[in-house]
Structure formats: C-alpha cells, structure tokens
Design brief:
- The chain is built from four helices and two strands; from the N terminus they run H-H-H-H-E-E.
- Strands 1-2 form a two-stranded antiparallel sheet.
- 55% of the residues lie in helices and 3% in strands.
- The chain is elongated and about 110 Å long.
C-alpha cells in the first residue's frame, strides 16, 4: 500500500513540475513580447520627435520666404496689399430667416406667450409680451 501512495505522489509531483515549467515558459514568452512592444513604442516616439524637428525646420519663416522668392513666377505669388484687409463691419450680415417659413404652420412649433410670473419682478400691463419660439434663440 505504501508503494501505491508513493507512485501517486511521484506522479502528482511530476505533473506539478510540468505545469510549473509550462507556466514559467509562458511567462518568459510574455516578457519577450512586452520587451518587443516597448522597443516598438520607443521607436515610434523617436520617429515622432524626428518628424516634429523636421516640421519645425520646414516651416521656418526664412526658408518659406526663400521658397516664395524662388517660385514666385510659377506660383504667381504677390504680397498682401493693405487694402485687402477689411474691417469687421465690411462683412455682410447673414439675413435672418423668416419665422413664418421656419414654423411652416406646424402645430408643434407654434409660438407661445411667456406669461409665467416668478414674483421677483412685477409685470406691468404696459410691458410688451415676449413670444418664445422653441429652437430659435432671441
């Protein structure tokens, strides 16, 4: 009987050793994969830094001015004239949409009168009534 228990314990020990070895091997594979990904991330960061430095060199005003002078005939570039810059008031205002066209006779969008009294301000009878249209800001 002692031999049967010994054989079972040896078998359990061998299975445990095999499982332990497999877990260790899988963990080492994961470490290798993590290091590979970390190297890729470092490479991408270096590439981004290189591209940022290249962009700053390419957009230097002196370089752009030289290129502008070289290719002025092909691109037909001209300096900005002072009269090309306008004032804010020179921009035409957008015409307001006709409220009747917006409503279009829809029962859902019919204007309602704001008659709610909060008590903080007294409403006089002579005060004009405000019409509130949902979806349209005053």
């Amino acid at each position: 009987m002692m031999r049967t228990i010994d054989i079972i314990l040896i078998a359990v020990m061998l299975v445990a050793a095999t499982v332990t070895y497999k877990i260790k091997h899988d963990a080492e594979k994961q470490v290798v994969e993590i290091k590979k990904i970390q190297r890729q991330i470092a490479f991408e960061k270096d590439t981004i830094n290189l591209l940022k430095a290249d962009w700053s060199l390419m957009t230097q005003p002196n370089r752009l001015q030289r290129l502008s002078d070289i290719y002025q005939t092909q691109l037909k570039l001209q300096p900005v004239d002072v009269t090309q810059i306008g004032l804010f008031d020179d921009i035409p205002m957008k015409q307001a949409d006709d409220i009747e066209k917006l409503i279009g006779g829809s029962a859902d969008l019919v204007a309602s009168v704001d008659s709610m009294s909060t008590g903080s301000i007294t409403q006089s009878a002579a005060a004009p009534m405000r019409i509130v249209v949902p979806g349209v800001r005053p």
